[in-house]
User: Which sequence fits this backbone?
């Protein structure tokens, strides 16, 4: 798992990746150690009053378990979530859970709610009375693939939580590099060659975005403001969905060919499901406009990598920017590493920011406690 670093490290603070937490936490947000490795409730004087909306006088606090593969991740997220619950006057006992440190709750009681990343089947078996599970990431393919979550348990994913702007910045940088001839100028500099090149115009590089959800909509808005013609593709047309009025959207299998043929820069932001696995393949590359470029910032298996390499060798693609791969970390023997027309980053296009994430989870938890349906519920039939 990639690292998450705190402010004291002088690097990217409080960051986790869009799909997996991307970092090793160093301490908590206040710089102090948690009060206990098993109980991260806020001090009593900071908790909501008995009259708070989600606190009932004489009633025990709700129990919230936080499960991550590493104990320090669980501690960090549990401490931050406890603070977010205080802000929303949720009377909650928030406890980290990990296989190596797990201890049963008093009386072997089950937690009422849980949040985390890649919680194992043992976690759900130890907490049979969960009312909901909040996934600590926007992508849910990993947790669904484990088949650890009971089918009857509602799963809620993060929506944006600071990832949309980062994703838009990443994609905008790549698109601007294309029209700015930056790679060619870098080669010229290396060879000490002064060679002005014909300027390229954004209007000549129509961008097609596969996946027009919360993240795709923000990417489309930023690129449109930079002068790129933008169109999107979604699995099915949803009236009133994000971006449907501002960006031309193709929808469904019958419109896929037209979408691809209108695209020079293809940005992949779709969720990984059985239907989308391998959807970017030889047929896709053959239909893109000449001089096409691929940007994959979603999930590696969406792109058929052998077909990608063949398209690069045959000149169907000018190049590719890849942040995600079928196998991660990318094996050292992969030909993608040294390919002259491939740019690689290690699954960092958008990182989940800790505070916005726990604030969103606390908001969803508060809604659930009020008897409302929180947004972001995973549709198991669609796998996202």
Assistant:
């Amino acid at each position: 798992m990639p690292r998450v670093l705190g402010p004291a490290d002088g690097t990217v603070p409080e960051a986790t990746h869009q799909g997996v937490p991307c970092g090793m936490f160093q301490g908590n947000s206040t710089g102090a150690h948690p009060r206990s490795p098993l109980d991260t409730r806020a001090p009593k004087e900071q908790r909501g009053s008995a009259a708070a909306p989600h606190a009932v006088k004489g009633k025990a606090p709700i129990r919230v378990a936080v499960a991550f593969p590493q104990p320090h991740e669980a501690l960090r997220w549990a401490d931050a979530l406890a603070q977010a619950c205080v802000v929303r006057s949720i009377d909650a006992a928030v406890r980290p859970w990990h296989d190596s440190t797990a201890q049963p709750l008093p009386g072997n009681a089950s937690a009422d709610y849980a949040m985390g990343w890649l919680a194992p089947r043992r976690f759900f078996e130890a907490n049979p009375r969960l009312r909901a599970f909040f996934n600590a990431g926007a992508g849910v393919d990993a947790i669904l693939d484990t088949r650890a979550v009971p089918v009857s348990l509602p799963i809620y994913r993060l929506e944006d939580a600071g990832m949309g702007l980062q994703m838009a910045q990443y994609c905008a940088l790549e698109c601007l590099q294309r029209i700015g001839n930056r790679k060619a100028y870098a080669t010229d500099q290396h060879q000490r060659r002064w060679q002005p090149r014909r300027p390229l115009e954004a209007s000549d590089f129509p961008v097609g975005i596969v996946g027009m959800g919360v993240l795709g909509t923000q990417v489309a808005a930023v690129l449109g403001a930079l002068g790129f013609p933008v169109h999107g593709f979604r699995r099915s047309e949803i009236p009133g969905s994000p971006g449907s009025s501002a960006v031309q959207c193709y929808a469904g299998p019958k419109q896929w060919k037209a979408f691809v043929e209108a695209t020079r820069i293809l940005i992949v932001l779709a969720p990984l499901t059985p239907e989308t696995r391998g959807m970017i393949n030889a047929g896709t590359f053959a239909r893109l406009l000449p001089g096409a470029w691929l940007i994959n910032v979603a999930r590696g298996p969406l792109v058929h990598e052998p077909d990608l390499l063949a398209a690069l060798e045959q000149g169907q693609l000018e190049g590719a920017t890849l942040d995600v791969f079928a196998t991660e970390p990318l094996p050292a023997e992969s030909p993608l590493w040294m390919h002259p027309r491939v740019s690689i980053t290690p699954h960092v296009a958008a990182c989940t920011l800790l505070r916005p994430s726990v604030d969103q989870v606390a908001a969803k938890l508060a809604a659930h406690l009020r008897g409302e349906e929180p947004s972001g519920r995973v549709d198991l039939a669609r796998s996202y």
Summary: The radius of gyration is 23 Å. The mean pLDDT is 85. The chain has ten helices and 14 strands.
